[in-house]
Amino acid sequence: MKKKYTVTDRFVTKITGWIASLILLGLIVWGGGSLMDYYKYEQTNDAQIQEYVNPVISRAGGFIVDVKFEENQNVKKGDTILVIDNREYVLQQEQTQASLAKAEAQLVVLGSTINTLENEASSSQAQIAANKAKVWKQGLDYDRYLKLYNEESATKQQVEKVQAQLDVDKSEYRSSQENYAASVSKIEDIRAERNVVKAEIQRLKSLLNRHKLDVTYTYITAPYNGRMGRRTVEVGQMIDAGETLAFIVNDDTDKWVVANYKETQIKDMRIGDEVKIIADAYPNKEFKGTIISLSPATGSSFSLLPPDNSTGNYVKIVQRIPIRIRVDGSRKEIDVLKVGMNVNVFASKKHS
Fold first, then answer.
1. Which 8-state DSSP code applies to residue 242?
2. Which residues form the signal peptide (predicted)?
């Protein structure tokens, strides 16, 4: 019996045929576009967005008394993001300031002592001159009385009296010389002590500057304009110097892509070449980029345990070369690209 098709069956068949034709046409267009892209570009989807993501590290230890940021918050250079209890550091600073004031006062006292001793030395020097003159005069008297005694014009008692006075004057002369030498020696000792105090003052000033620096370390500020990442601290937490407290993404530097191309794809790539970048998150948006460097070695060569093909069975594997590509455009335009995003990179092939 001959099968009959209804109007509905013919309509469904016609619609199905049109849909199949459209699908086939779409596949042809997509395939043609893919072939054209393959012909025009060296492509890779082994690529990620990169920026400078730096840890915020404490240079002082203590209890956190204030946290002034939240995760993903924008911050400006110099903004305070963490505050550490600084009372111990302030006390150390005040103690050093007191020691410095004491040393400076001691320096003043030593200077005054030197002035006093210099005056005493000047007095002793004048006394030496006076005693020297007395010895000279008494020596003349002794010579005169001795001559008179020899001529029997003076008694022995008179000669002995003059001689005794001469001995006293000589003793006073030597005493004044010794006093002067002692004063000069004391002056030199105090000057040496003063140099020691000056060195101590310099040490205390350096120590004071260090304590002031420690106080500033208790206020942790943003090193540049950026966005805060993961927050791992809370008020009341005890931290140590050198501990990582948060992460910050630098907004003052360029974004770039690290594209890992196969070694067979890079023969025509040069620094300065323009590339096309399409992020998986924004498949309908095209970004521009510029090649700024090619790695000096394959990615595996920088691994912790680089392969050594001479130690066993050899299996050839196509290696990847990291290519660094700067993302071009305004900051507002490229800010939608976040660190770690996967992208597809298309580098133009050069045909002779």
1. T
2. none
Separation between Cα atoms, residue 203 and residue 195, nearest integer Å: 12
Tell me if the domain spanning 87-216 has CATH number 3.20.20.80.
Answer: no
Q: Could you give phi then psi for residue 269, rounded to 5 degrees?
A: -80, 135
Regarding pTM above 0.90, the answer is no
Query: Hey, CA dihedral for 283, 288, 293, 294, is it positive or negative?
Result: positive
Query: Could you tell me the residue ranges of all domains in the chain?
Result: 42-51+252-348, 54-86+219-250, 87-216
Cβ neighbours, 10 Å, residue 197:
20
Q: Is 249 helix (H, G, I), strand (E, B) or coil?
A: strand
Question: Taking the domain 54-86+219-250, which CATH number applies?
Answer: 2.40.50.100
Q: What CA dihedral angle connects 113, 114, 119 and 121, to 10 degrees?
A: 120
Residue from 227, 226, 232, 228 nearest 244 by CA: 232
Q: Output the pLDDT for position 204.
A: 94
C-alpha radius of gyration, the chain, whole number? 48
Per-residue pLDDT band at 100 (split at 50, 70, 90): very high
42-51+252-348 sits in which CATH class? mainly beta
Q: Report the C-alpha gap between 42 and 323 in whole angstroms.
A: 12
Buried b (16+ CB within 10 A) or exposed e, 306-328: eeeeeeeeeeeeebbbbbbbbbb
Q: Does residue 38 contact residue 214 with C-beta atoms inside 8 Å?
A: no
Of 159 and 260, the structure prediction assigns the larger pLDDT to 260
